[in-house]
Amino acid sequence: MKPHRMDAVSLTFGLLFLLVAAWWAVSRVVTLHLPALGWTVAGGLILFGAIGLLGAITSGRREQPDPIPVAAESRVETTPGDLPPEVHASIVQELLEDPATKFEAEHPDRKPEK
Hints:
Layout: H1 8-29, H2 35-59, H3 85-96, H4 99-106
């Protein structure tokens, strides 16, 4: 994984959610009745989420420079491996032949099993 620059928005949200989790853990042990504060925290989280969403949307719209075209080398080989056409023709002919027929011709004493 490549190291990257610190993102202040991600750090803020991470700390905020850590604070909310700690607050939840403490509220399980200590009983406090603060309904107005709960709505304030919920509204703040929604606001921070909207700001983060807008930041993510606008960060992808940065101007990117156009790539510089690079000329490719063109190299054409006439025949792979520099073999004469007759050799290529014999290789292709051998590949097109049926292997079973070739085996029967080379081994006439064996009969195919059924």
